[in-house]
Amino acid sequence: MLRTLTVVNHPWDAERLPNGNYLICGFSAKKVVEMTAKGEVVWSYAELTNPYKAQRLPNGNTLISDFGGKCVLEVDRAGKTVWEYAKGGNYMDAERLVNGNTLIVDARAKRVIEVTPKGEIVWAHGLGQLVRDADRLLNGNTLIALSTPRKVIEVTPKGKVVWELEGLGYLLDADRLPNGHTLVAQNGEVAEYDAKGKKVWSAKVNRPLEVNRY
Question: Which residue, among 214, 4, 78, 202, has the nearest Cα to 24 in the 3D structure?
Fold first, then answer.
């Protein structure tokens, strides 16, 4: 272990920023904070209910999935909301895409949607299952982590499943790595699987909610 930061109750998401700081979601603390490697808080936003995930955007703003607040919002450094999507869902994940749209996981509706800056849905994939995480891949497909029935799938824009990883523990997050492998956070461990579904690396972790490789 290289570093441990203690900042908020129930940190459900954390990512290391290009400046070396860390962006952390405090689910129970009801806020998102940016912290230096030494533990100094340099930015925070606390007008939230239960923030699940956050993404720092290239423009310096922060995209936040507020699960309890039933909204996805983009706030600037001053804390002003400059964009919001609030249609009554329980949003567990949101990712700003290169085309300016936003990919959103709606746990209540059990689906993944892509919405325009005007809030129009231009793509949706209904699953009828509990979705935890979704990432748009470089090939245009979408990687989706499902807690039930505990698997990771890759779907095309037309919704066809072209790859899946089954037999996992209680699934919480999944990321596709540059080498084509898939990094999975599941109850009890973080594990890396190759394209054929073979586990090639793992580490025991009590309950990993988010996983990133740097």
Answer: 4
